[in-house]
Specification:
The chain is built from eight helices and no strands. The chain is mostly helical and 165 residues long.
Length: 165
């Protein structure tokens, strides 16, 4: 209910409500490890690849946030949306592995339905073999998920009935 009382967009308020300080620590650790071990990787760290890294970090974050907003929006229809969020968190761990180890069905699911492959696998593939199609598909997936998460959120808001007297 508190999201609907503010003079700003309810979904924006929900997404920006809190900053996870643990995530900031993980970001700093990731940057330190990348700088420290980056010279051992077979990657030329020129402006083009550094820009691509920032590009993938931004769009990967958008994709992850949209997936979690869709999962959170199930709370409008289900009595326990935490189960859905736990499921999505567990699914995210499958994205830590190369999608090539999964069969075609799971690979397609992790690419197009729950696109966790764009959180780590496909950006890594870009740096390893230079697959430039990933630069085009990643923002397309992110934009599609922005619209889908917005649609699911607004559908839930319309169905929301607050409890109380």
């Amino acid at each position: 209910m508190k999201y609907m009382l503010r003079p700003i967009d309810a979904m924006f308020y929900f997404v920006s409500e809190r900053i996870d300080l643990k995530g900031v620590g993980q970001l700093i650790l990731g940057i330190v490890l990348l700088v420290y071990f980056g010279h051992k990787l077979p990657i030329s760290w020129q402006l083009q690849n550094i820009s691509a890294l920032v590009f993938f970090a931004i769009f990967g974050s958008i994709i992850y946030i949209c997936i979690m907003v869709i999962g959170s929006s199930t709370g409008f229809w289900l009595s326990d949306s935490l189960t859905v969020l736990d499921f999505l968190d567990q699914i995210k761990s499958y994205g830590r592995y190369p999608l090539d180890i999964y069969g075609p069905l799971l690979k397609n699911i992790f690419t197009f339905i729950l696109p966790i492959g764009f959180l780590g696998f496909y950006p890594t593939k870009f740096f390893i073999d230079g697959s430039s199609w990933i630069l085009l598909v990643t923002p397309s997936i992110a934009i599609a998920l922005i619209f889908l998460s917005r649609y699911v959120w607004k559908g839930g808001i319309k169905r929301y009935v607050p409890s109380g007297s």
